[in-house]
Amino acid sequence: MNNEKIDLIEKILNSKNIQEYEISHIEKKAYESIFLKDRVDNEREVTCFEYSLRILSQRKNETGIGIVRGNSLKPQDIEKNIDICLTLSKINLSTKYHFPAKALIDKISIYDKNVIEAPLDAKKNLVEELLSKIKQKKEVNPTFGRFRVHVDEIFLRNSNSIDVSALKSYFFIEFSLKAQKNGKLSEYWPFVVIKEKKHLDFSSRIEKWAKLALDTLKAKPPKPAKDATIIFSPQVLHDAINPVIDVHASGKAFHEMVTLFKMNEKIASENITMYDDGLLEGGFATNNWDGEGTQHQRNEIIKKGYFQKILFDQKYAMVENTESSGNGKKAIDGSVINGISNLEILPGEMTLDEIISIIKEGYYIEQFSWLNPSELTGTFGAEIRNGYYIKDGKFENPIKLGNVSGNIIQMIQNCVYISKEREFFANSLFPYMAFKNLTVSS
């Protein structure tokens, strides 16, 4: 991997006698096919790069942090950004902070060799396979879609001897499937980011998408219930659980005393064991190192319902006089946010079908129109886009519209069943999970 761009930026930083700095650089390549109906309508290739700088200005008991982003490598533009960053570092004072120092980092691969060596060939083969599977589903009609192969090169260097890089590949799928019968029209339009080629699984993915499009034609509003048992899909769980755990398990939340979790206290049902795992094979956030260059780890957050570990980045580790757990995330603006990497919940002992079979009356939710729980309180309310009403251990009819409401913190305390099956969705590996005492309104 080529780090000439970082060399250039560092040379100018040194010429200005900047003592404490961090350079982060990412180069992105995307190879995209755009579909109209069941054919390729357009092909695109996009390459872009950008860098971010962080400069520290030390005071007696405080540190100022300047942050800027740039995408020009003209020396005069780099100098201008450095000057702005230095000025900001003298203004934006916070708690004492130093960049992490170099440490031994275990090597893991986060790219597909075939994709890196021949991305266009890889895309061509996968597009042909995807379209072949879609054309087999005669009962639905494709309208629009995209498939992308992504390759990212990421570099991080600081003045404290950290100098790391990573090469990453992943995939993006978006496809609309339309169903029509007796004058009724429905459409299922999913999109998903997938890290590993083996998880694309076009056959089962398209089969599921087509079924959801067809079932929506006969969907009804849900039957209201104040104490409902509901099974959530891994995608729904990602949207529900990740933002809440991201806040309440963080060192930042503990330092600011806004977390609802306490060490070694029960915060979830005993059947829940959860990890934050920055080394998880197949996780979208997997890398050797976090956004500050600290070794990623596998951190047990919840063990059989009990809270086990606070997730720290460098800043809040220093504040609490401890070590970073590898949970400094690089934000779009170049800053570092204390939060999760990949979340994993261990599987249960029952299949999804077995869980459905023992529910006398309940609901299964595949997808909401939106789901944005309050990160601090955990409360949420969301409209059902795709789901099923469960009666006497089987799906009785599809449901849509209506609303599910509850609280994520209470929900994980009321988990009654966890499936053996698990699925990746972006930076989570979750089973299907059933919860009691939720509210459904029509």
- The dominant shape is globular
CATH architecture assignment of the largest domain: 2-Layer Sandwich
Structural class: alpha+beta
Percent range for β-strand residues: 35-45%
Q: What would CATH call the class of the largest domain? A: Alpha Beta
Distance between the termini: 55 Å
Report on the biggest sheet: 8 strands, antiparallel
CATH superfamily of the largest domain: PmbA/TldD superfamily
Number of domains: 3
DSSP helical segment count: 10
Low-confidence stretches: none
Radius of gyration: 24 Å
CATH topology of the largest domain: PmbA/TldD fold
- Mean pLDDT equals 96
In which range does the helix fraction lie? 10-25%
Number of strands: 21
Question: Would you write up a description of this structure?
Answer:
This protein folds into 3 domains: 4-215, PmbA/TldD fold; 216-239 and 347-441, no CATH class; 262-339, no CATH class. Helix 1 (4-15) packs across helix 2 (75-89). The chain is of the alpha+beta class. 23% of the residues lie in helices and 41% in strands. The chain is globular and about 75 Å long. The protein has helices at residues 4-15, 75-89, 113-117, 119-135, 202-216, 234-248, 251-255, 314-319, 352-357, 408-413, and strands spanning 21-36, 39-58, 62-70, 93-95, 141-158, 163-181, 184-188, 191-194, 225-232, 274-277, 298-303, 306-307, 328-330, 336-338, 343-345, 361-368, 379-391, 394-399, 403-407, 415-425, 428-441. The strands form 3 sheets. Strands 1, 2, 3, 4, 5, 6, 7 and 8 form an 8-stranded antiparallel β-sheet that branches.
